[in-house]
Amino acid sequence: MNNTNNIKKIIVDKPLKLDCGKIINNFPIAYETYGSLNDKKDNAILIFHALTGDQFVSGINPITKKDGWWSYAVGPNKAIDTNKYFIICANVIGGCMGSYGPSDIDPKSNKILGTNFPVITINDMVNAQYNLLDFFKIKKLFCVTGGSMGGMQVLQFVANFPDKAKIAIPIACTASHSAQNIAFNELGRQSIMADTNWSNGNYSNEKSNPDKGLSVARMAAHITYLSKNGLQEKFGRKLQERDDLKFSFDADFQIESYLRYQGSVFVDRFDANSYLYITRAMDYFDLIKQYGGNLSKAFTNTKTKFFIISFTSDWLYPTSENKDIVIALNAIGANVGFVEIESDKGHDSFLLNVPKFLETMKNYINASYIKD
Amino acid sequence: MNNTNNIKKIIVDKPLKLDCGKIINNFPIAYETYGSLNDKKDNAILIFHALTGDQFVSGINPITKKDGWWSYAVGPNKAIDTNKYFIICANVIGGCMGSYGPSDIDPKSNKILGTNFPVITINDMVNAQYNLLDFFKIKKLFCVTGGSMGGMQVLQFVANFPDKAKIAIPIACTASHSAQNIAFNELGRQSIMADTNWSNGNYSNEKSNPDKGLSVARMAAHITYLSKNGLQEKFGRKLQERDDLKFSFDADFQIESYLRYQGSVFVDRFDANSYLYITRAMDYFDLIKQYGGNLSKAFTNTKTKFFIISFTSDWLYPTSENKDIVIALNAIGANVGFVEIESDKGHDSFLLNVPKFLETMKNYINASYIKD
Asked: Which pTM was predicted?
């Protein structure tokens, strides 16, 4: 898997009790930063990444050698301006980019942890990352933000630490994973587990990875990230480097070729067990249930200012689910803004060059920073 | 696979030229009938089945011992009334319920055909089934109908044989498979092919079937058959026979258990290669392209009366795609009715007990039969 020896890490030496009951200690959190923390330490933005993201939000990812996953949004003069703000992003626990995860070596057996890694939650992820505030001696973050699973972490962070962020921008997310969300994640997990190379999670010891299963899981996910109309406009029934159908099972259509490609490149950078653990954490996420069926109660103690962003063509975390968060915040008179951005790019909109989205976020962040 | 020795078959002894260019001859078409053909032979309804259907539309399927796939719609006094009409349904070529398909034995090698079976199309399926009209000496069918891929066959049948059906009822279908449709089918195919037991399609020789891959393919398909809201209402976040989350990868949620079950029962009745071939035929379906980009031209020579039915929550073949067929028919002044049925059961609505749908279809069929 990824060689993470040369990336930044803190070792958390405070015990963390996980939701499953297990206590972990002396575990690594891998992180990256962009920009500079000012003297007042009031310009820090903590970004939470999505399912297959990592700490490398901008610039060139030193492991994959590709652009950081949020390069459209984060950089000099961009929506999240690295000239103005100090950006921190950590790899979630359960991940495979240096933070404590299932591909770590179990010191007892000298084998990878695999499925001996504990099942973690969004709450566990957020509590683990909170240690970065101590590390950087930041009393209060200016902003917490993230899309998709990153947005779930934003919600959980404010619920857990009501006085630790001035503003919060959850994007294209939900307060409670729906049955369809769980279904698609379960499909991905079953696909990985169906691969005989998965070997009950012990594959790295046997030098063979469940690449085929992980690739199919990624293909399934990719379909959900795009809208039906977006797919039709981008691919339609266009053929892949051929004049006519070949009457075979090759990739006749561009959409087939696209999906196969997305699957094949994913397995080079992502660990199959991490995929299992992180999707599980997403499925377990239910902030409404955590607060006794009343989402408003998650936020009664906070003065954090919220700005919720959804996208018209996102059918994975549709506007209606984002609005439920707005409604819960309104019910307690919280300071909350909301915008639904017109886009045909589906759930992926938050990762892509959607000018209206980027401009809206930029304006909100900059205006909020000035007002004190 | 299914033992189809004791089911009804005709052997087609007229050569059929397939779209791929290959000519087949002396091939079996397995079929079932319900009700009686009257003396005038004017009461025959040909039903086309969907991707995983077969000829056993009603009563108990003699192979699976379960209810026929369209038991809600077909039977005495039902929407398609077996007391009044003579119902014929054939297994499509490429299928695994007795018609010529990839699990047939190749007489040359004495092995299953596997991927030596030719890639077939909806057009090939319809042309093959047309032979049943000769067999039953039916000059003109009263009705052709079917949902999903069955609806595509309805459209193709009328285009190919413009004077062979009095009425046509395509349900929840499309005239051209969309990029998202292709994407989900490709996901299923890749899932099957990723299973090492698939063995390039030669699995039956090796006595091991790609059950895991086929099961994942079925899970993916099932998600697309249900609506997001329908899933949420039926399953939501309900737990499967437990009081709380187990912090494991077992099926904690009912939706997970449901999908696993659907996958596991499917592999007992369906052949993985058939799944590849039939999904391929669906993806190749583009009646618009067949008629030079103008769908109306497919129907200019027909006097067949059309009734198009779609469902509000069907996101696989949404109302908009069904309406495109209506628009094409209207453009040539064809006799066409259209109804969008309110239902939260998604694409599966046409298979389920949706009273408004069943009543509407019943009324239309009976009224059309009386008017001559």
From this structure: 0.97
